[in-house]
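Possible regression after last week's pipeline update?

I re-ran a chain I had predicted before the update to compare outputs. Posting the input and the new output here so someone can diff against the archived version. Not blocking, just want to make sure nothing changed silently.
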Amino acid sequence: MKNQTRMSRVNDEIFKEVSQIIRGELKDPRIGAMTSVVRVETTQDLKYCKIYVSVLGDAAQKESVMKGLKNAGGFIRHLVAERVNLRLTPELSFKLDESAEYAVRMNQLMEQISKERKEREVRDDAE
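New output (post-update):
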């Protein structure tokens, strides 16, 4: 339990710092304002860290942002090493997280189904 608490704190710190770096310190024009960190998963040995990023835009914009983050990975890791007090700074890898878009799409489909059911009930009641 103690180790999970520590990993949770490490993930939270890395999450906070990477979010701040992406939002305000990267000068890469490929990484737009509609990029946000969703979650961070660090391995127990602190060697690797997956950073899940959400990007609003079309497929080309997403691909561009991911390339920009991959190129800026060393710089981001350097800044994280300066700000987060860890013996080892994990190697960062960025993954595209499309769960928010999936949720919006599912919500739209559910609303569409609900609307169609109501229309069908109105027609059945009229007959």
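Follow-up from reviewer: compared with the archived run. The beta strands are 35-42, 48-55, 91-96. Marking as no regression found.
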